[in-house]
What we know:
By secondary structure, the protein is an alpha+beta fold. Among the domains are: 97-173 and 182-224 and 332-447, Outer membrane efflux proteins (OEP) (Up-down Bundle); 243-305. The protein has helices at residues 2-13, 61-128, 134-168, 192-202, 204-224, 247-274, 294-304, 331-397, 403-438, and strands at 18-28, 31-35, 38-43, 46-59, 230-244, 312-313, 317-323.
Amino acid sequence: MNDAAWQVREAYGQFLPSFTVGGSGRYEASGVQRFGVIDLGETSDTYLSSYFAQLNYQLDGNTFFQAKSARANRVATEARVTAAEYTLESAVTVQYLAALRAREAVDVAERQVARWEENFELVSARVTAGAALSTDGKQSEVDLGRAQVALLQAENLYRTERARLMEQMGQEVDRSIELASNFGVFEPAWDRDVLIEMAMAQHPSLRAFVAAEAATSAQVNQARSGYFPSLTASATWSGFAQRIGNEEFLLAQSEGNLAGQRASCEQFNALEAGLPGGLPNYTAQDCTQFVMTPERERQILAQNSLFPFDFTKQPLSVQLTVRLPVFSGFSRQRQVAQAQAFNRDAVHSRRAEELRIQTAVTQSYDDLVTAFRSLQIQERNLEVASEQLELARQRYGFGAAAFLELLDAEDSMEQAERDHLAAVYDFHQSMWALEAAVGVGLRPDDAGGRDDQPSGG
């Protein structure tokens, strides 16, 4: 997400000019310069330094549409992050429910062990009194051992599910942590159409798809900007400094240049004096000015000492260029077609997500209603099985019922407890699935939920 934010800043930065500065240094050793077979003469070692500063500004269609595309991409990135956070929260919720269910299974197993202990004491007392067969006592002891094994397995599963929960949360496993359930059971009374409208308006996953569609639409406009003209302006400031390493070579070269200028001057003066009427537009000059003097030597040596930072400025250079793209080998057409294809894919993906959410809300709500009704039936079954078990114990204690009747009642009670536990967590899991489909919390406050549930009819 930080990268997307910087892309937006970079896009707006394209409206500002760029400024570049630089410098260089160079050394040329003494020797004979040649160009092909042409001898350009002896040179002395030379030291050169230079600087430049350049201001550039470019404006085209991409500059305008890139900023809009970057903003849409940032929104899409933020939406994807929000959707990922919601997905992680959902995964933690699923594992939390699994851990709670495992903990409740431990409670069920403990109650079963406690009942089998009571049954064992009851059967042992009757066997001791000679009112029951010894095989009844053995069978009761076996059933107690099976219940104890089931308890060990339930405790192990609870520890495993709790460790998985800590892993999902990115925490170290802490055996001292105990789960505290705040999930209550309530009758669902929402309107299915209201839930679908809520999901269409604010589901994080759908928001991510909508934002991705907007981003691809902005990319289509950015691709079309390749047909727009562009403007480029630049301004350059520069300067250089140079020093000849051999001052005698420099003075000799300067004196040679003066001798050439003096000879040329004397030649033109002679032509001016010898031709009738003289040279047109020429006035005789004093050729003694082209003589090496001590003052001229000092000036030459002073100019040679400007290296490395006393630069001679070059004239300002300004350039303005306007470009109108005419033909680029169909690359612009390909880019536009590709961006349009991505946009169509995003539209279809968004539509598919809408249909998926509508189906998920409908199915999850129906599952929740079914789970609530099933739970009501299982609560009644549990109550009846408990009464049946209590009656079977009393009848067995008075010798009015056989041991098999007690076993059947106990098995019925165990099955009722397991079915009730499954029904409770089928309700919670269906409730979580509905919240995941809608994209918001729906539980009422007194059932461990939040305030953002819709009103139902």
